[in-house]
Structures are given as C-alpha cells and as structure tokens.
C-alpha cells in the first residue's frame, strides 16, 4: 500500500540553528530536524527508541550523531540506527534544501 | 523460499533462559525460537529488584530486553503464559491457556519460587516473598500504607529487602532463626560486624527466633515465635530461601531431585530437553546466583549451536550485598574446619575484616567486610584454586611489600578461561572483552562498556575489566587509562585546562581540533565539560555554546520523561510572599500544570509544562529563574533563625537569602547546594550540603563537602568565622577554588575527598592573600551573569528554535 510521497516545506534556513534540533509536526508525524555543523539537514521521528520513549530534538549533536536528551543513547542521524551497546532504530526522512527552503519528503 | 529451521522452545523468560538465547543468537544459531514466560513482563534484571525497592531504579530501568528486541530477533514471545507440560510423544509444549507449540529442542529455565514457611497464617493478606516485580510492587504499596514490617530471613535477599523497606520509611525488624546473619556466606565475625552496621542504618533485629505463627484476622498483624514472644508487624516479607520451580518437569516425567537433574551438557533425562538456571540441579548443586547460570547458558548455547565446548563442571560462587555503605564479600568456603589454614585480619577501628581460607596451601575461600577492594582478585584466586605465595599474600593482605603486584594480577587474568563471565549483570565473558580490545582497538573501561555492556549495571566487575585491559594492553594501558575525560580524548581534565590556557583556545571546536579529539565534535560527555572549562577560564569573553549544553541547561528548564518541562522560580532562602504564591497559582492554573510540588530545597516545582508554553510561563511568572536545571547554585536552605525562633542566635533567613542572591546563576562543575542555620540545632540540615553554615553565639561555623544524593556524605567542619563579611569571603573562596579545580560533574563531596580537606584548608584558611584573590575572581565572574529567561524572552530566534513547534 505504497502511497505517494509528499514534500513539506519546514521553514527557511534561518529557522534552524546549527547543532540544535527543532520540532516540526508534519501531518501525523512529529519530526526532529537537525542541522549539522557542515550544514547538512536530517529529519528523524521525534521519538526515542528507548523503551521509555521521550523526545529526541533536545539532544546533543556531534558530527552525524545525536546523543538523546533523556538516556544518552547515541543515534546515527543518517540511518537512524542506535549505536552499540544499545539497540534500536529511529525512522529517518530525506531532507532537501532548495534555495532558502528546507523541505522534508514523507 | 524459507528454509525450515529447527524449533527451539524456551520455557521461562528469565535471566538464565534469555541469557542462553542471547548467546545462541550471537553464535548465529539457526532456530525458530518461541519463549514462554509466566510473568506479564519482558525479560528483566531480577537482581536489580533490590534497587527498585531501594528507589534508585525504576522497573523500566531494569528491563534487559524489551519487546522490540524479541521482534527484531524474530522470537515469538508469550508472556503471562505458563507452560504446564512437555509431551514427549507428540513433541509439543503445552501451556495453561491451551496453546501448544511443537518443538525440536526445549530449554527449561523456570527459575525458583520464594519459599514460604508452612506456618499457620502464612497465607494471610500482607505476606509476600521477594522474587519478582509483583512482589516488589506489593512492598512499595505496603510501605505507603503501613508502618511496621518484619522480614523473615537474614540472608542476602532478606537484608536487601529490609534495607529497602527502611528506605521507604518503614520500621523494619529482621527475624532470623540463627544467631548469625548470612550464615551461608559469612563467618561469625563478619556477620556480627554486618549486623552492627545495619543497626546503625536503622534495621532492627530479632535473632535466634523461630516463627511458628503469623497472627491476625484476614490481614497479618504480627508474628509469634517458638519461645512464646511476639512481634507486631503490619506486613511480612518471607525471604527464607528459594525452591527450584520443577513442577512442569515433574509433570512431564523428567527426573527431578531438588532441581531438574542435568548432565555436564545441561541435558535432562528427556531427550532434546535441556535445563539451565535456578531450576536446575547439576552434580547435586542448585545455584541461586546469576554468574553460574550464565556459565551454564554459555555451555548450552554452544552445545545447541554445534560449537565445540568444554563441559560444564560447576561454579564457584561469590556474593556481594547490594546495600550502600555495607561492603560485604564472600567467595568459596568460609567456615573454618580443622583442615583449613586461616589468614585473617580484623580492624575494629576502621571496621574492616578480611579472612582467607587455605586448604593444602590452596586458596579455597575468602570473606571481606568493610573494604572489598580485593574482592575481584580474591574471587579469581578462589576460582582458580591458586596456591598461596608470598607475592599473593602481600598483595591481598596489604603488608606494604611493593613490587610484583601488578605482574601477579596480570597473570591471574591470563589464567582465566575465555568463557568465564566477567560481568555477571550483563553476561559478558573475558573473551568478549579481549576481542573488544584486540579487534576494535578499545583501550578504556568506558569504551569496553559502550561496546560490550560490561560494568554497566552494578559496576562490581570493573576491577577485573581493568585488569584484563592491563593484561592485554601491557604498558600502553597506563597511558590511556590514567587519562581521558571520555572516550574522545586521552587527556585528563587538568591537561585540557592547562592546554586551553597555554594555547589560548576559545571554543569547544578549537579545543577539540587542536588537541586532536578522536570524535571531532566530541560527545555528550566532553562537549558540556569543555564548554564549562572555557566559561570558567574566560568568564567575561567566553560565549556560552548552547549546542554544547545538556537539554536542561540549553532550555533553562528541566525535561521530564514525557518531554514536558518543569519550571522552578527562585525563592531566596526559601522565603516567598503571598503575592508571589498567588501569581504562581494563577500561572499554574492557566497553563494546566500537572503537579505543584514542594522540593527538598524549599521551593516550588511546577511540573509538566508543555514545551511550547515554557517561555510564556516564565514571562507571566516574571520571577527570576531558580536554576533547578543547572550546574550552579540551586538553593540556600534556611531555618527560621533569630527572626522568629526562640533558640536562634543568628539571622539564618536573612543571610541565606543574601548568599543565594550573591551566588545565583554562576556555573559550577556540578549542582551546588547550601544551607544556613540559626543555631547548632541545625534544622536546615547543613550536614548534607556542599556548604553548610551553622550559626552560634559568636559567629558562624562552616561545613563543606556534604551530600544527600547518590553517595551520601556528611560535611566536614571547615572553619569558624566571626562576622558575616568573613563568612562571605570564605564561601567565595571555597566556591571559586572548587570551580577552578573540580572535574566537570564532580560534586564537592568527591572533590573534598580527592583534594583532601586539609589541603583545601591550607589553600584558603592559611593564606589570606590567596583567599582574597579567589574571592575577587568569583566576584568578577559573578559580574558577568544574568537571568537566562530575561535574555530568552528578548531573543525571538533562539526562543522559537528551542521551544516552538511548527505544525504543517
Ligand atoms: C531481589 C533479588 C536480588 C538478587 N540479587 C542477586 C545478586 O545480587 N547477585 C546474584 O548473582 N543473584 C541475585 N539474585 C538471584 C538471581 O536473580 C537469580 O539467580 C536469577 O534471576 C535466576 O535466573 P533464572 O533464569 O534461573 O530464573 P528467573 O530469572 O527467576 O526466571 C524464571 C522465569 O521463568 C518463569 N516461569 C516459571 N515457570 C514457568 C512456566 N511453567 N512457564 C513459563 N514461565 C515460567 C518465571 O515467571 C520467571 O520469570 C537475586 C534475586 C532476587 C529475587
Ligand atoms: S537551627 Fe536553631 S535557630 Fe534555626 S530553627 Fe532550628 S533551633 Fe531555631
Ligand atoms: S557485574 Fe554488575 S555491572 Fe558487571
């Protein structure tokens, strides 16, 4: 049941501070958007894969990794994979930047 | 097309069974796995129930494998389902709800049940065992409702339960049949030292008492003993032992003694059926601790995966009591007989005791009390049945003979089998650790922890992990081990601070680039630390990096587990006004705050504010931030003092508020708390504060390094001063000295111990010049701080980036 993907404009570049996450709700999904120090953008579902859940947007960003704010799990922003010794995965979504606009496709 | 795999059914979703499955998965075993568990929970760490009871962990914290794990590994899990029979003929496992699953192989790992004394009244309400989450919940609930509890059984479990209930505020008596506690692990000397220590911690004892009846109507109200005496109790925990859970095996026609009988490959009398864990009897022994169960599981996993394995030949067990401030260790044999040669040392002043038992000069057992630093080495020596030598003697008895110690330790890890479990909590073997070092190039305990999970739970295995590191790395260990504030660098805190000053480094990025960080942008440990060091070194010019702050400090509010925030306005010295209270109430109602709570530091928590409302809440409160989220001065707790109290000799409220106003907002290595009391009655509890101040007729007495948190510590008397000016100067100097020399996240309780009280006194009290300079430096730093919420409310871009949620 593959439905067509939609492109949402999340805001303009100035809305996103380097290495500080921002929450955007896109229809049914709450996203955490991160801008890395080399100006790449990543979008993940704003929900920790830790059994107790919780948000991700407030974590510390280092390179392409995120340290989650509640349990300090290390998560690869590119793949959503939780790094050992913890296990789990976060849903990731492709982000595009055209001109000033930051968009996500879901 | 899918290849048919063999069907493996595990009965019992506990530590031994799931541990075995984990090993099978690691070995790449090709099985379709189904797991049955009677409890409604996924696999959890049973030994940590003691911490749940004590309050330092929650049930969620002790889950080992959540449901996602089962899914990820394609394991079918039936929780809340008890298996009643294995039918050999049809090769089916049959559960109480009628479900039946066919198998090729079965593992029985049903554990044990609490042994409930068969005395009249033992089925009354209010009588529980201590075995699973349900028991733990029952105890937590009882503590809310009742006051007196009796714990029957003075073994490991009973004592941990008793201490937990004392922590929950109950009046607890441990009832023990014999005159010695933990008589199966400790000798008389260690046992009486243990009892004395626990008494000090508030546990009561009824020794040499045999319970013959539990009294009461529906609900228990007391115990009657064989000598006719009685004890009143609203709640009774039975911790007199465990009974291997063998019903299912018996009903299926499998040979059972005390436990399910297995051979050295964990095979039961029924073909294709195996058994591991507490329900199992191997060579006449049933084990009740996790380390042997993991050893069994390892052998079974290999056997089931067709890998070569040594037979299981039994385990040497070692015990550690998990009660803070009570260090007890025992391994192997401990009661001396004529065959034993005994080495012992008892120090009544330091309250330590050490005993080693030799048989034909071989080390066969050891008991330690009070100081258990040697526990890891002794455990290994007992396990190996090592021969006593002069080197070992001087090493473990600490006669100060130097040289040779390190090499000997290395040799004992060398002799350790690859398969031996080093970390009992997480089932990590020596080999897994050695592999992490040789294959991934890891060199620190932290890296080993991140990769294998060893040392992650109770930490008891850390000394052995360090020894293995040392053994594998040889000389290169020293360099990497002494240093490293985290795994991103090998530099220590002092080296980093020195380099920052010497090279004039200004940002975390610069520090990490110049000092050659392994992860160029650091991690959640070093980024906040380096940001703090920079701020401490350059109070006026350092631009605080929001992206290097923990969430709480970045958002200037405390995050809660559901992602909402807690707002805590300042209340200087714990004093507020009716007007402020009214405003707090109005804002709380308007923003639908979930709970308003009075904190331990005399102020109000507004808990459960939605993220996007936090700025508005602060705006409408229009009060200074209480910094409840920060590593900085939290509160200055005060008593009533001479303004109102008939005993008061000093104005504690006034001075407390003055100190809080003076020192608020400045960053410290860790959170910082103070208290001010009007007289030596000490109603505001100075002894557990970073700086505690007690008034007396002629001035003030200052205490430092107290802590009521994870590692409670009573503050040390630091000095006496006559005037308020002297008081401020001393506080300033202590705080600044701590700011300049403390490791990030190091509380003053640890700092005082590391630096030495006398050393700090020398720096601050014996040198007036130095004291004034320290005080001047903190004043300079204090001149730079401002309220974060005033700033945040004026900075639309940051505020919106941090708090607003866009909806598309
Ligand atoms: C409070 C407490 C503190 C402890 N502290 C320590 C410690 O510090 N150090 C230490 O080494 N050990 C400690 N232990 C002991 C340790 O927890 C046990 O040795 C270990 O958990 C036993 O593992 P197991 O898998 O054999 O049994 P369990 O972990 O008990 O697992 C057995 C599981 O099987 C399930 N089950 C039983 N029958 C059936 C059936 N017919 N069908 C389906 N499921 C069934 C049970 O519900 C249970 O969940 C402690 C135990 C407790 C209770
Ligand atoms: S510490 Fe002394 S002055 Fe303060 S409230 Fe207690 S008795 Fe009164
Ligand atoms: S033994 Fe408890 S953490 Fe390793």
From TrEMBL, chain A:
Organism (species): Paenibacillus tianjinensis
Protein name: Nitrite reductase small subunit NirD
Keywords of this entry: 2Fe-2S, Iron, Iron-sulfur, Metal-binding, Nitrate assimilation, Oxidoreductase
Ranges where the Rieske domain occurs: 8-104
NCBIfam families listed in its UniProt record: nirD_assim_sml
């Amino acid at each position: 049941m593959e439905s067509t993907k939609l492109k949402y404009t999340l805001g303009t570049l100035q809305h996103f501070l380097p290495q500080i996450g921002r929450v955007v709700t896109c229809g049914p999904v709450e996203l955490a958007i991160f801008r890395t120090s080399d100006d790449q953008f990543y979008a993940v579902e704003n929900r920790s894969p830790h059994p107790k859940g919780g948000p991700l947007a407030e974590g510390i960003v280092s390179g392409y990794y995120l340290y989650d704010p509640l349990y300090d799990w290390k998560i690869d922003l590119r793949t959503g994979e939780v790094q050992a010794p913890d296990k789990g995965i976060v849903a990731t979504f492709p982000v595009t930047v055209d001109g000033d606009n930051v968009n996500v496709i879901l | 097309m899918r290849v048919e795999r063999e069907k493996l059914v595990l009965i019992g979703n506990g530590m031994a069974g799931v541990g075995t499955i984990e090993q099978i998965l690691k070995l790449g075993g090709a099985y379709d796995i189904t797991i049955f568990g009677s409890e409604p929970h996924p696999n959890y760490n049973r030994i940590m129930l003691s911490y749940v009871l004590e309050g330092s962990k929650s049930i969620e914290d002790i889950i080992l494998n959540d449901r996602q794990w089962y899914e990820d590994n394609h394991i079918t899990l039936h929780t809340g389902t008890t298996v009643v029979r294995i039918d050999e003929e049809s090769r089916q496992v049959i559960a109480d709800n009628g479900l039946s699953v066919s198998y090729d192989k079965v593992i029985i790992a049903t554990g044990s049940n609490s042994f409930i004394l068969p005395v009249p009244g033992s089925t009354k309400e209010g009588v529980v065992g201590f075995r699973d989450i349900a028991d733990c919940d029952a105890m937590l609930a009882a503590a809310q409702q009742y006051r007196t509890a009796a714990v029957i059984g003075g073994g490991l479990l009973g004592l941990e339960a008793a201490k937990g209930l004392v922590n929950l505020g109950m009046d607890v008596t441990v009832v023990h049949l014999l005159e010695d506690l933990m008589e199966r692990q400790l000798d008389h000397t260690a046992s009486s030292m243990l009892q004395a220590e626990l008494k000090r911690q508030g546990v009561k004892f009824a020794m040499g008492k045999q319970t013959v009846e539990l009294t009461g109507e529906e609900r228990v109200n007391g115990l009657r003993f064989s000598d006719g005496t009685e004890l009143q109790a609203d709640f009774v925990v039975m911790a007199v032992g465990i009974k291997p859970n063998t019903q299912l095996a018996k009903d299926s026609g499998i040979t059972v003694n005390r436990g399910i009988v297995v051979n050295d490959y964990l095979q039961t009398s029924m073909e294709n059926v195996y058994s591991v864990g507490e329900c199992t009897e191997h060579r006449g022994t049933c084990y009740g601790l996790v380390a042997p169960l993991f050893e069994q599981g390892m052998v079974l996993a290999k056997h089931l995966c067709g890998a070569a394995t040594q037979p299981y030949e039994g385990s040497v067990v070692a015990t550690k009591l998990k009660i803070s401030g009570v260090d007890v260790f025992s391994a192997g044999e401990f009661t001396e007989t004529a065959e034993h040669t005994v080495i012992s040392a008892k120090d009544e002043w330091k309250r330590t005791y050490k005993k080693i038992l030799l048989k034909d000069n071989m080390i066969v057992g050891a008991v330690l009390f009070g100081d258990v630093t040697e526990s890891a080495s002794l455990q290994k020596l007992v396990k190996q049945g090592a021969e006593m030598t002069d080197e070992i003697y001087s090493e473990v008895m600490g006669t100060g003979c130097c040289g040779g110690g390190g090499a000997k330790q290395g040799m004992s890890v060398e002799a350790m089998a690859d398969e031996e479990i080093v970390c009992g909590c997480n089932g990590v073997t020596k080999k897994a650790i050695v592999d992490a070092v040789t294959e991934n190039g890891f060199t620190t305990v932290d890296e080993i922890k991140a990769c294998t999970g060893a040392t992650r739970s109770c930490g008891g295995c850390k000394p052995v992990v360090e020894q293995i590191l040392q053994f594998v790395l040889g000389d290169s260990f020293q360099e990497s081990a002494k240093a490293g504030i985290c795994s991103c660098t090998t530099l220590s805190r002092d080296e980093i601070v020195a380099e920052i000053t010497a090279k004039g480094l200004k940002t975390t990025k610069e520090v990490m680039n110049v000092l050659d960080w392994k992860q160029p942008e650091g991690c959640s440990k070093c980024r906040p630390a380096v940001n703090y060091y920079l701020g401490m070194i350059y109070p006026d010019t350092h631009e605080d990096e929001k992206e290097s702050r923990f969430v709480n400090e970045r958002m200037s509010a405390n995050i809660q587990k559901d992602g909402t925030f807690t707002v805590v306005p300042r209340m200087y010295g714990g004093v507020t006004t009716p007007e402020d209270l009214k405003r707090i109430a109005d804002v709380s109602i308007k923003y639908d705050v979930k709970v308003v709570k009075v904190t331990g530091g005399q102020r109000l928590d507004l808990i459960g504010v939605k993220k996007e409302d936090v700025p508005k809440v602060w705006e409408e409160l229009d009060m200074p931030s209480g910094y409840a989220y920060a590593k900085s001065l939290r509160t200055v707790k005060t008593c009533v003092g001479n303004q109102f109290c008939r005993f008061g000799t000093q104005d504690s409220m006034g001075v407390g508020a003055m100190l809080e106003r003076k020192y608020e907002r400045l960053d410290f290595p860790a959170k910082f708390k103070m208290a001010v009391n009007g007289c030596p009655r000490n109603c505001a509890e100075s002894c557990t504060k970073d700086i505690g101040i007690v008034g007396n007729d002629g001035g003030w007495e200052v205490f430092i390094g107290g802590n009521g948190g994870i590692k409670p510590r009573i503050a040390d008397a630091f000095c006496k001063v006559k005037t308020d000016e002297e008081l401020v100067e001393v506080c300033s100097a202590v705080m600044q000295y701590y700011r300049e020399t403390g490791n990030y996240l190091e509380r003053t309780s640890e700092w005082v111990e590391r630096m030495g009280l006398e050393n700090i006194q020398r720096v601050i009290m014996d040198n007036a010049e130095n004291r004034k300079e320290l005080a001047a430096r903190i004043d300079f730093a204090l001149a730079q701080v401002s309220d974060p919420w005033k700033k945040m409310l004026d900075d639309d871009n940051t505020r919106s980036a941090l708090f607003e949620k866009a909806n598309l």
